[in-house]
Amino acid sequence: MIPYGRQNITDEDIKVVTEVLKSEYLTQGPNIQEFETAFANYVGAKYAVAVANGTAALHLCALALNVSPGDKVITTPITFAASANCIRYCGGEIVFAEIDPLSYLIDIDSVRSLLEGSPKGTYKGIIPVDFAGRAVNLEDFKNLAEEYGLWIIEDACHAPGGFFNDSEGQEQRCGNGKFADLAIFSFHPVKHIACGEGGMVTTNNIELYNKLLTLRTHGIVKSNDLYVNSIELAGGDENYPGWYMEMQTLGYNYRLTDFQAALGTSQLKRADEGLEKRRRIAEKYNSAFSGKSFISGQSGVEAGHAYHLYIIEVDNRLGLYNHLREKKIFAQIHYIPCHLMPYYQSLGWEIGDMPIAEHYYRRCISLPMYPTLTDEEQLFVIQTVNEYYHE
Question: Could you tell me what percentage of the chain is helix, strand and coil, using 3-state DSSP and rounding each to the nearest 5?
Answer without folding.
Answer: 40, 15, 45
